Amino acid sequence: MASKHTKSFKDSMSMASDLIHDFVCSPCQEDKLNTEAKYFCGDCSKYYCDKCLTFHSKIHKQHTVLGRKDVDKWVGQGDALISCDFHPGKVIELLCEDHAEMCCHLCVSLNHRMCRSISLISDLAKGVYEMADFRLLPSKVAKVTTSLNQVREVRKKNQVSLKACCKYMLTKIKDLRKALNQLLDELEKRTVKQMDSVLADLDVTLQKDIDSCTHIYDQLNAMMDTIQAQGKDNEPSSYIGFRKCEEKMAKANSLLQEMSTKPELTATFKPDTRVTQLLSDMHLLGKLQGNQETLTGHQMSDMKSSEQIRPLHDISWVYTVKNKSTFNVKIKQDTFTCIIMGITELPSGEIILVDNNNNRVKILNREYKVIAQYDVPQKPRDICHVTGNQVAVAVDCDHPVRHEVHFLTVTAGTIKMTRKFSVDHHCRSIMHHGNQLYVGSMTALYLYTTDGKLVKKMYEDTSRGMTVAKFAINQDGKRIYICDFYNNKIITINNNGSILATLQDPDIIGPNSVHVSEGGHVFVCSWDSNTVLQIDQEGKKKLVTLVRGEEGIFYPKAVWYSTHTCRLIVGGHQNDILVMELQ
User: Cα–Cα distance between 239 and 235 in angstroms, integer?
Assistant: First the structure.
């Protein structure tokens, strides 16, 4: 049985003409007439036929009326709300309850002729203002729009961080290219050196033969000159000369026979195609990854705040330890227990450690095995990556006095020092940023050029003991985190040396290493509390303690987050390094 709404709709349809117009005259429609509109008044937001426009123009002479030539401007904001999505210019007047769709008359004519339950919107809308859901609509919309705005802001921040990440990755790509160039330069140099050696050996062989021929040649000519000069008056001398020439010619013939059996000396170069093949098989210089989080409609509706969305480079992300392992870095040449005081990473993925107790720099492969080492004269304290395959080591010793920065180059698994410079203060920690070197003494932080020229003293605290043990710089260089070992603090300064924040925590006792990852996350390890933790980028609070002494670390002194393996590496007063996978 049809509802009363359905009957009203049928009554309405019976009064309407079968003609279908793009726009219907508003006054005529109110009188249940189906008249095509030829004009639109923007001030009234109504449509008019020729007849109704005459009355409208007499009453509203100042209104702006648009004709058919401006039909694309006819629909206003109010009309947009009630306009049919499928048939612009048609007004939504009906609801097909079979399909739960709001329709215009044209929709019904084309798509809903067979539907049984179609009602007039005007009938359904009666009493809408008293409906509970309608009254709650503003608060519901406000709640959803607030959540949308929060998500939008989070995504905008994610965009900014991704741009920063892109710049940093570009630097890493260029560093890798420089490292490859250096490796190729070194391979070329060694190949040319070997070529020169091979050619020199061949040249020596040829020169010996040339000298032998020349020697007999000169002797035979000299003998003949002497014999001919004596004439025919001295037969004994001539006979002796004859016999000696015979002997010398026998040697010459023997030499010629020997020479005839020797092949022509040649030198060839056969390229090692493994390098070419490897590069041609590679599609990229490295592995590029990005997390893509997808929220379903259900998840989005359940979302209470933007905290439920964690972008890839969300600086507020708090890590947890998924698993951890230890790897032994002590080698046969080591006399004492390892004390790892500095860690850095090459663009190619090798980890480089500073072993202070054995005066060594050690290279680890991706399986954390020592593949090469370099002996430092005395007390290496810290290490940083400079560019390409070059690193800088802080060397500091009081007996004899040695406060130096050593530049080492790593090529084909070997390490060699290329240059060094001295400073007039302790040299306990070092970082490279923006083509400049930051060097920390026990109580101050200095800025140098890479050539060793002092630019300025950035920070100093002589209150007591070691107030500048180690430090780290964030990606844009605007924040520097300093380990105040004796006062159990993390001091955060800007690049002008002004203090931005001071952090103290029961798990920060004797802090002596800090590291900022590529994503901007800050990690700290403390000697006396045997802890490794993550702090916020502002340097104002601890976020989480990741590991304690009883969990595999003993007096930690160095911490590093590897961008290649996404592992946190910790070294200390022990032969093992602790490697943690974070999530």
Answer: 6
Least confident of 4-13, 87-96, 345-354: 4-13
User: 30-80, pLDDT tens digit by residue?
Assistant: 888 888 889 988 888 888 999 999 999 988 888 989 998 887 777 654 466
Structurally, what CATH architecture does the domain formed by 321-582 represent? 6 Propeller (2.120)
Residue 298 burial by Cβ neighbours in a 10 Å radius (0-12, 13-18, 19+)? exposed
Two tokens, residue 409 = 């180059």
Long-range Cβ pairs for the range 353-356 (8 Å, 24+): 353/329, 353/383, 353/558, 353/571, 353/577, 354/380, 354/381, 354/382, 354/383, 354/393, 354/558, 355/329, 355/380, 356/380, 356/381
SS (H, E, C) 81-108: HHECCCCCCCECCEEECCCCEEECHHHH
Tokens of 451: 């050539």
Lay out the sheet containing 46-48: strands in order across.
46-48, 39-41, 65-66
Measured on CA atoms in the order 165, 170, 174, 176, is the torsion positive or negative?
A: positive
* pLDDT tens track for 19-30: 667 778 989 988
Domain boundaries, the chain: 4-133, 134-260, 321-582
Question: Distance between alpha carbon 270 and the CA centroid of its chain, in Å?
Answer: 38
